[in-house]
Specification:
- Helices cover 47% and strands 15% of the residues.
- With 271 residues, it is α/β, with parallel strands linked by helices.
- A hairpin with a 2-residue loop joins strand 1 and strand 2.
- The longest helix has 20 residues.
């Protein structure tokens, strides 16, 4: 595995590329990988650079030092937001946070989040933006914002999207804590790793499945899935038809159908 040279340089995130799969490791042990202004800015820059690239087939988000993400950077909140007391500045900072969560949620590539240690508040919000989630049995989760006197504002829609309205209400309004062993039951986790050593084979299996799929077809599929809940039926029918036509007349479908007929793997699936 090697660091990607074409993407923006980062100091709070370690970047690794392995066979078209990008792993982004949050690495700020001094604040338990909190979503500081610097980490958030760097993550957004990398995601924007990755978005148009179909040679990068998937992205994994995880944390160094045995923790995924402790949530927002509270010291930064106190200094930067409460310190200046400017309501419009706070609104703009919140909007930027919302844009980051949306960038993860809508990234055309398949996004895996791996949780070890803890995913709290905004960290749990990031988890809810993933396509697939792996958690260790002893991982810890909570939406703790209301215990601090603030709402889980920008992550609320993603928590509802992932967990459903009833569960989202309960977790957000009680700040209830739960562990990875409960995460599958709640609908948060797709895969449970009993031990940290079980993470690698689980992720490898997911990567193998994703890499069998054509990258642009996956991107269009993800866009359709995300559009479905809020798009009127007639508009959804047209959107799906246009996405299907664009793919059917594109190089991927030509190659995929030819490979099927010729009983071989398509070029994107490797040897």
């Amino acid at each position: 595995m090697s660091t990607i040279n074409e993407l923006p340089e980062t100091t709070t995130i370690d970047q690794e590329l392995d066979s078209g799969w990008l792993t982004l490791w949050f690495n700020t042990p001094e604040n338990r990988n909190a979503l500081s202004s610097e980490l958030s800015t760097e993550l957004m820059a990398v995601l924007e650079a990755v978005r148009p690239r179909r040679d990068i087939r998937g992205v994994t988000l995880r944390g160094r030092n045995g923790i995924f993400c402790s949530g927002g950077d509270l010291k930064g909140f106190k200094t930067d937001l409460q310190g200046q007391g400017d309501r419009q500045a706070v609104i703009e900072a919140s909007r930027q946070a919302g844009a980051l969560f949306d960038a993860v949620n809508t990234l055309p590539q398949t996004v895996i989040v791996i949780v070890e240690g803890a995913a709290m508040a905004g960290g749990l919000g990031l988890v809810c933006c993933a396509d697939l989630v792996i958690v260790t049995a002893d991982a810890r989760f909570a939406l703790t914002e209301t215990t601090l006197g603030i709402p889980p504002a920008q992550i609320a829609r993603f928590v509802v999207q992932r967990l459903g309205l009833s569960t989202a209400r309960r977790l957000m309004l009680t700040a209830a804590r739960f562990k990875g062993s409960e995460a599958q039951t709640l609908g948060l986790a797709d895969f449970l790793a009993p031990e940290a050593s079980d993470i690698a084979p689980l992720e490898a299996a997911i990567r193998e499945q994703v890499l069998r799929c054509a990258p642009q077809a996956n991107a269009v599929t993800k866009a359709l899935v995300l559009a479905t809940p809020n798009t009127p039926p007639d508009e959804m029918t047209q959107l799906a038809a246009e996405g299907f036509a664009d793919c059917m007349l594109g190089d991927e479908a030509r190659e995929g159908i030819a490979a099927f007929i010729e009983k071989r793997k398509p070029v994107w699936a490797g040897e």
